[in-house]
Amino acid sequence: MAFGKWVKQCFESVVDPDKENEVAELTQLLQAGIKERKRSFVLAEVLQDRVYKQRHLDQARNGIYQRYLARAWADGRVQESELEILSWVSKCLDIPPQTLRAINLETARPKFAEALAKAMDDGIISDLEAAELTEIARAGGLSLPNFVEKFFHIEGEQFLRGIFAAAIADDHSAVDVLEQLVATAAKLGLSRKVVVEAIRPQAVQYIEHVLADAKEDDILTSQEESTIRQLIETFELPIAVQVYIDEELRELRLLTDIKNGKLPSIAAPPGVNLKAGELMHYHGDAVWQFLRLLKSGPDITEHPGVLAITDSRLIFRSLTRSGAFGFGTIVAHDSSRGVIEVQRQAKPVQRFICHDQSRIPAAIFLSALRMANQTLTSQDDKRRSRHIPRDIRQRVWQRYSGRCAECNAGEYLEFDHIVPVAKGGSNSDVNVQLLCRNCNLKKSDKI
């Protein structure tokens, strides 16, 4: 920058050697005229028949105005009387309006930045601070909203986002925080729409957090759904985000019914023979990972086919292998998203990987098994043992900054036990991580 300025000065000294002297002479002439003639000052009369270059005159009168402007700003603010003097000087010197606006704005901008930073320091803009900002903006020739929009839009948005993120991290109501921000932003001349748009990324992440909390136990309470609906409406989320959340809530409502024993009943498709009075709850494509224990070692073969879950058994059929597992013969079982594992007495573990990778198939199986075995109480105790306490979920969310531990995704997030509870894992924060749906599925495939 300094080198460029030096080059410019060298160039001007060659092509315009009289510039410095003529600007100084014009400045002295105009200043003397203002001092002597005061209100009777007329630029053309002061210049008379003097020969000069227009650019030299422009520099001289701009320099004079800037000196008056600096004097007005000396105490950090421009009084009404000083504004009148500045207006008179600019008219006397016949400074073009566009040039005048540029000078005023350039001078007021650093003053405004300093005052705005001070006002933002405690997260609240008082009426006194708002008045000071309005005064500075006016001295710059703009209204407060226009000044903020022109020069400090980015800083204002960052300020609003920072306050919102800090407030919800401290467990304040997001809706209440928004209303406080709207009131604060109004003092900067910013509309509610601007505030909502500014904090929308943080709002989406916050709603994702609330949704992940609701999904943790596969139970959607009326309070949780009401809260999420209120957040969607309050923060005016984009349609794509609303559709995503609606899909998650629909699945959660279905899971809630299943957990409460309200299993879906569907008609048996052609080719599936049910016993008298047997009810079918699920039917979908799946792969049976059939494990055989051979002398040479374990051998796994995969059989693509269709899995059905009834109120008394699992039924699998394919072109290569078919079978039925009565619930009464199952001595051990485990399940995760889209995966059902069962073990019968003296038999190796068999795994069914459903094409539907949601939590629905496993939830239907577990609830149907509980109802058939009349073990609702013990299964509920087991579910509670998997439940991650809220304070643990809060610490885990903050540790991963609301992002997947594996791929950094910010959607479809779930709290996951690093070591599954079925294998001795605890609910402590060191054994809980945040995973997106895809990474959780990949992990399930490896276990």
UniProtKB/TrEMBL annotation:
- Write out the GO MF terms: endonuclease activity; nucleic acid binding; zinc ion binding
Under the heading InterPro entries, the entry gives:
HNH, HNH_nuc, NA-targeting_endonuclease, TerB-like
Name residues in a coiled coil: none
Please state what the protein is called.
HNH endonuclease
- Domain of life here? Bacteria
Q: Transmembrane region positions?
A: none
Database matches in Pfam families: HNH
Q: Which SMART domains match?
A: HNHc
Domain named HNH nuclease: residues: 391-441
Keywords linked to the UniProt accession = Endonuclease, Hydrolase, Nuclease
